[in-house]
Specification:
The structure holds two protein chains of two kinds.
Chain A (H helix, E strand, L loop, with lengths): L3 H11 L5 H11 L10 H36 L6 H29 L2 H17 L4 H16 L2
Helix pairs in contact in A: 5-6
Chain B lengths: L1 H8 L15 H14 L5 H11 L5 H13 L4 H44 L3 H29 L3 H16 L4 H15 L13
Helix pairs in contact in B: 2-3, 2-5, 4-5, 7-8
The chains are: A mainly alpha, B mainly alpha.
Amino acid sequence: MAAFPEMKILTVEVHKWLTFPQLIHLYSVGQMAPGPNMMMIVPIGQWAGGILGAIVVVLAFFGPTAALTFIVGRLWTKLEKWPWRQSIQQGLAPVSIGLLLAGCFTMAKGAIFGLTTATIAVAVLLLLLNYKINPALLILAGAVIGVLSFMP
Amino acid sequence: MSETGTRLARPEGIDRGVPPTGAPIGQIFLEFLIIGATSFGGVVPYLRGSLVTKRNWIDDKEFVEMLSISQSLPGLNATNMAILVGQKLHGALGAVAAIIGICLPGAVIMYIVGLFYRLHGEHVWITAALKGVAAAAVGLILSTVVGLSKKSLTGKFDFIFMALTVLAVNRLHQSVPRTLIVVGLLAVLFHRPRKEQKETAAS
């Protein structure tokens, strides 16, 4: 989600591979799929360049961070005594949460309009904060409420 | 010898007495494939159930440690965890097997969803359902933000760094890497190691 604002600019505005509503739809539906929750990049790649496009997109999206994690994973335990390790962890936490929130706002601009959608979002937020519910089920419930509320 | 006992009891992270090649490559791939195919609604609990409880490949302390590394690095927790665990079990090959395993089912599902959406995305009942789905997803992300903030933000300055990040991306339209470097550097410097905890400047 932290990548969402950047992803919107590049895929929607620069390359015009899809529209903003389509991007929001793919992202949201992707939350129901199992596994890493950014697999919505696969259909973007597929639309832009067929099956080869899908594969390239996955490699490009996960390759660099995977390589970084691999390297850091080898060093991290050795750096346990390094005082800056704690600093880096503490310092990056608010930034990564901020990026997540920024992604959320970008998406909300397209996804929240009127009372019904706002109520759905707040209800999901409160339910998840107070009860242990599988989020995929709530997304599914959102689909049902969507059909009931927005069917012409 | 009681001394050996205490030495073994002290966890040493990844380089501990557990044999480094804990599992054959096929088994790693298969286990992560199962996680990738069944982990509806968030990967972390499934990872724990499978790697710690079922397979005993890592213990709880290692799991928490790897998770905290995964969270401080860019990229998704799910894929970062796959890399770290795969690496621990079978080196680079293990890492590759684990990440392909965990990504494959979701990727295939979303490939099919993408094809279907392209053909039928304009149907009235699908557009109606997607409006509800998108709104619910906003609530889901917000709950993640709240949960993470409660867990890892300490003090009002962290909230300022968070707000600066949001401002930079949403209002000033700065790129994510640039924001990460500038605000991240400020925040890391703010949390710099101090010899003594003389907090005169901070509130």
